[in-house]
Amino acid sequence: MVLRAVSGQRRLITGASVLAASHQACEALVPVVIGVLIDEAVSTGSVAALVRWLVILAVLFTVLSYSYRFAARGAERASEQAAHRLRIELGERVLDPQGGAEAGRLPGALVNIATEDAKRVGRVNGAVPFGVAGVAGLLVSAVALLVISTPLGLLVLLGTPPLLWLAHVIGRPLERRSGVEQERAAHASGTAADLVSGLRVLKGIGAENAAVTRYREASRNSLAATLRATRAQAGHDGALFALTGGFIALVALVGGHLAIGGSISIGDLVAAVGLAQFLLGPFQIFSWVNGMLAQGRASAERVASVLAAPPAVAAGDGRLPQEVTGRLRLKGVTHGALHDVDLDIAPGRLTGVVAPDPAAAAALLECLGRDADPATGSIELDGVELSGLHPSDVRAAILVAAHDADLFEGTLWENVTAAVSGAAEEKAEDTDPSAAMSAGVGRALTAAAADEVASTLPHGVDTTITERGRSLSGGQRQRVALARALAADPPVLVVHDPTTAVDAVTESRVASEIAEVRRGRTTVLVTTSPALLAATDRVVVIDGGTVTAAGTHTELLHTDPAYRSAVLT
User: Fold this and answer.
1) How far is it, in rounded angstroms, from Cα 451 to Cα 257?
2) 140 with 25: CB under 8 angstroms?
3) Percent helix, strand and coil across the chain, each to the nearest 5
4) How many Cα atoms sit within 13 Å of 378 on the Cβ side?
5) 260-319, pLDDT tens digit by residue?
6) Signal sequence: where (predicted)?
7) In terms of DSSP bridges, do strands 522-526 and 350-354 run parallel, antiparallel, or are they unpaired?
8) How many CA atoms lie within 13 A of 189 on its CB side?
9) Residue of 380 and 249 predicted with greater confidence
10) Which is nearest to 155 in space by CA: 285, 275, 26?
11) Domain extents for the chain?
């Protein structure tokens, strides 16, 4: 996939390579033309020859100037387009309903791979045309030197391959350290993003010093890796400059010896020395290209590790009934903290699930949202196994509203209507917020008590909320997130602890409103809130990873001490 993104700009790279090669060829011919000018015009005093060769020089400079300009433009475009395509592919892979790309990686690390690493891989496209140009410059120089003197031409032709091989060997430490540099930088970025997202919590528990220490360590490791990579870059460039400088000096020495012996003319000597000096350019290009390729290979491995990450769940080809009734059945489900769970959730009913162990609740939500498939057992929706469906089909039918669901930057209305088709357009045409509140989305706002949140904001539902809803209190965020889940109105809605940060009066109101707005639709409340559980039709208790009791809220309060302890303490 990485190779496809890089090679997708083949036409641009080919055009840029031709132009760059033309530029280097013209540059190589400049000292040759000057040498001929000396022999045919200066030495003979011919004005006509002088004018003729000056015109040829002017044409050469014009061609090399324009060819370089358009070659650089094409190479840069190929580089940016390849990086852009990689960013798109990385974004699609991370957002793939099957998941898996985020496993073992902090969000900041993924961002670093999608930006810096994608950019470095894209630069390979920008380096290739100039590498081709360097080869063209060397070939033209070698041919010119062969014409001037066979020993000089053979020296360049036979001496270049060993130099290129040594350049590759010298570039290996740079490649290794460049990969470590990017890995540490990504970890530091991920740590910073993680700490910033939890800054309010850290301040609340007085853990600022621990957070600073954690980031300082990650930053120091990143700095150390960057310094090692920089030293490798400096050593790489210095070694190549020494090699190429010695090689050029040897070419000039051999040319001077031939001139002294009378084997070549003064013009040939000037051309040979000029070509020797010109050779520094191609070798510098090779040094730069080799560095870009080394860094690109290291970054390509990181990009490929994300793109090739195995999916968390398989994409089945099964189909749900056209009208989903919402009957859920768990048969012998074992996953994480769940062990051999059998559960039957009737369609159109409001069911409570009490799981005193947070790990059991999290495992249940993962399975119902198909973020993971159970190790054993099966989960069915209307008689169809979830593992046989595509994850996007499952999530269209079963919406799992997590306890820690984030809001995004935008208006309150945009957050609530994010999953409601056409709601944004409906609001855009209706400039009266009170009229919009009377629509289905307004009903969801009322049911979640998010209408009260809107009433306290300066512009009501049109008030802009900052990233992750940080401009709202915890209770306000919960109510807006619940309103978003209710507004989506899926066939099956699974909500996890939606009222832990709201007061008791509001919680009681929300409980009755959820029962009303979801009447006739399958709803599962994973919670230990007695107010919410009192509004359910049936409650299931999962204790020790398995189902231990079932009944109404009132029945369980009187008959199950474990249930009573879980919901009343």
Assistant:
1) 92
2) yes
3) 70, 10, 20
4) 10
5) 777 778 787 778 777 777 777 787 788 788 878 888 888 888 899 899 899 989 988 899
6) none
7) parallel
8) 17
9) 380
10) 275
11) 1-149+264-308, 315-401+490-568, 408-488
Asked if the domains at 315-401+490-568 and 408-488 fall in one CATH topology, the answer is yes
- Greater model confidence, 266 or 536: 536
Find out if CATH 3.40.50.300 is the number for domain 408-488: yes
* Chain mean position to CA 22: 37
Q: Which structure tokens are listed for 269? A: 């000597």
354: Cβ–Cβ under 8 A, 6 or more apart, which residues?
527, 528, 533, 539, 540, 541, 542, 563, 566, 567
Give residue-wise pLDDT tens across range 500-520: 888 889 999 999 999 999 999
Give the CA dihedral 86, 89, 92, 94, nearest 10 degrees: -60
Task: Pick the closest to residue 411 from 396, 428, 388 (CA basis).
Answer: 428
Integer CA distances (angstroms), 311 to 96, 108, 355, 382, 533, in order: 9, 20, 28, 25, 36
Q: Contact 43/95 with Cβ under 8 angstroms? A: no
The tokens for 336 are 């994480």
Has residue 436 got a pLDDT over 50? no
CATH of 1-149+264-308, picked from 3.40.50.1820, 3.90.400.10, 1.20.1560.10, 3.40.50.300, is 1.20.1560.10
The model's confidence at residue 190, banded by pLDDT at 50, 70 and 90, is: low
| 549: Cβ contacts below 8 Å, ≥ 6 apart | 540, 541, 543, 556, 559, 560, 562, 563
Contacts of 327 (CB under 8 A, 6+ apart): 344, 345, 346, 347, 380, 381, 382, 383, 522
Phi, psi of 537 (to 5 degrees): -80, -30
Rounded to 5°, angle at Cα 400 from 422 and 439: 30
Q: What is the pLDDT of residue 428?
A: 44
Give 265's contacts (C-beta < 8 A, 6+ positions apart): 39, 259
pLDDT tens digits for range 120-159:
899 898 899 999 998 998 888 888 878 888 887 777 777 7
